[in-house]
Amino acid sequence: MDKPAILIVEDEQKLSRVLQLELDYENYQTEIADNGKEALRLIQEKDWDLVLLDIMLPGLSGLEILRRTRRKDQETPIILLTARDQVYDKVSGLDQGANDYVTKPFQIEELLARIRVHLRQGKANHQNGGSQLVVGKLFVDLQSREVRREDREVELTPREFDLLVCLLKNKNIVLTREQLIEQVWGFDYFGDTNVVDVYIRYLRQKIDKGFEEPYIQTVRGVGYTIKG
Ligand code: CA
């Protein structure tokens, strides 16, 4: 199989070099763009399996690149590299179609895990037109919003559905309550993070209850995940 191609858009040379070394080591092919114009040119000229996109760049900003890319290409996974103080950029980046973000400084292992998830999803989306998420015998259709476990149809409220989709899209990654709040309830939610535990309990009742193998896992002191 061909090595997945990853474009690294980052103007801090030290960081882009480290990323390139790590990604080459993981058997990806990589190229670096260190300014916005070069990045846009490379994104348009070549076929990438994934793009790592810094937001603060000389030339064009990462968000502008994202906007222009998404006009023509909804599919290539894009992970934003953001600074801690760029909350606003993160939000508008996700709104504009970025698939994910990591906040600098990040652990390389976390980034690698996210890259793997999005490459897998990218491929799965390619195969089924982007409308289905499957883990084991749990099946979610994003278009019809139908949820099934084995032959049993599961009725979910919109919030439960969004929570399940979020867990499935990040399967095998442990999400903290804060991350789930951000992604499912939105950045403007200021209530208690206990609401996550409440909804996880609802979901378990509907999806795992009565089955031998539960899909939703609690990782004590950290958060929740779905293994698959
Ligand atoms: Ca930068």
Structure write-up:
By secondary structure, the chain is an alpha/beta fold. It has two domains: 123 residues, Response regulator (Rossmann fold, 3-Layer(aba) Sandwich); 95 residues, Arc Repressor Mutant, subunit A, CATH 1.10.10.10. Strands 2-1-3-4-5 form a five-stranded parallel sheet, sandwiched between helices. The chain has a four-stranded antiparallel sheet with strand order 6-7-8-9. A three-stranded antiparallel sheet has the order 10-12-11. The longest helix is centred in the middle third of the chain and has 21 residues. It is globular. The model has no long low-confidence stretch (mean pLDDT 90). Bound molecules: calcium ion (CA). The site of calcium ion has 5 residues, from loops.
Fold blueprint:
Layout: E1 5-9, H1 13-25, E2 29-33, H2 36-45, E3 50-54, H3 62-72, E4 78-83, H4 87-95, E5 100-104, H5 108-128, E6 132-135, E7 138-141, E8 147-149, E9 152-154, H6 158-169, E10 175-176, H7 177-185, H8 194-207, E11 216-219, E12 223-226
Parallel strand pairs: 1-2, 1-3, 3-4, 4-5
Antiparallel strand pairs: 6-7, 7-8, 8-9, 10-12, 11-12
Helix pairs in contact: 2-3, 6-7, 6-8
Task: Please sum up the structure shown.
This protein is an alpha/beta fold. It has two domains: 5-127, Response regulator (Rossmann fold); 132-226, Arc Repressor Mutant, subunit A.
The helix-and-strand class reads alpha/beta
Number of domains: 2
**Distinct compounds present:** calcium ion
Helical element count? 8
Mean pLDDT: 90
* CATH-defined topology of the largest domain: Rossmann fold
Q: How much strand?
A: 15-25%
Apparent shape: globular
How many extended strands?
12
Strand line-up in the sheet with most strands: 2-1-3-4-5
Distance between the termini: 22 Å
What is the CATH top level name of the largest domain?
A: Alpha Beta
Please bin the fraction of helical residues.
40-55%
Radius of gyration over alpha carbons? 18 Å
